[in-house]
Amino acid sequence: MKTMHRLIPVLLAGALAWGPSTAADPPAIEKTVVAAATGAVGAAGGASEAVVFVGEAQISGKVIYDTVFGAPPILEIIVDLSKVTGRGTRSGKPYVVSSQAILHRPLLAFDQVEVSFPFAAGGSPLQARSATASFGIYYSAAKGMTTTPVRISPHAPI
């Protein structure tokens, strides 16, 4: 007995959203800024010591337009904290931050952003703790994206 398979072409709406850009699409606006990052995390909950952070946070932003469904534009934010380091206040032990976060936020003139990130002594994931990096993003069509300095503080428990 022969079985006949019929292929039916299907057009997925999502495929159009990721397709090549047309002349009518608005240009993508990208900008990277480097912000000073400072702050401290105290020794709490059995943590061995307080940690002081310094370094630079690299923050990239790109406006994404929805040309298929007409939704409002969003700002894709990439926060790279790999150039931020910590030092234990009592022992002087180095603490490593190797974190990157990708966020999608509404495109606003000002937005306050908070990102939780792990840090650990010598990069050991078994003793990782968490902290919060917070900063403000200003966006204007004329100037693009600018940020406030990044403040690092203890991670607030939920």
Q: Notable features of this structure?
A:
seven-stranded mixed barrel; 54% strand; 158 residues; mainly beta
How many individual β-strands?
9
Helix content: under 10%
Tally of DSSP helical segments:
1
Q: Please tell me the overall pLDDT.
A: 80
Provide the gyration radius in Å.
Answer: 22 Å
- Count of discrete domains: 1
Order of helices and strands: HEEEEEEEEE
Give the end-to-end Cα distance, rounded to a whole number of Å. Answer: 62 Å
> Low-confidence parts, pLDDT < 50 over ≥5 residues?
5-23
> How would you characterize the largest beta sheet?
7 strands, mixed, barrel
**Side-by-side strand order of the widest sheet:** 1-2-3-4-6-7-9
Please report which band the strand proportion falls in: under 5%, 5-15%, 15-25%, 25-35%, 35-45% or over 45%.
Answer: over 45%
Which word captures the global form?
Answer: elongated
Structural class: mainly beta
Short description:
3% of the residues lie in helices and 54% in strands. The chain contains one helix and nine strands, in the order H-E-E-E-E-E-E-E-E-E.
Written overview of the protein:
Strands 1-2-3-4-6-7-9 form a seven-stranded mixed beta barrel. 3% of the residues lie in helices and 54% in strands. A hairpin with a 3-residue loop joins strand 7 (129-140) and strand 8 (144-147). It has 158 residues and is mainly beta. The longest helix has 5 residues, at 13-17. The model is unreliable at 5-23 (pLDDT under 50). It is elongated. The protein has one helix and nine strands. The protein has one helix spanning 13-17; strands spanning 29-41, 51-64, 74-88, 94-96, 100-106, 110-121, 129-140, 144-147, 150-154. It has one domain.
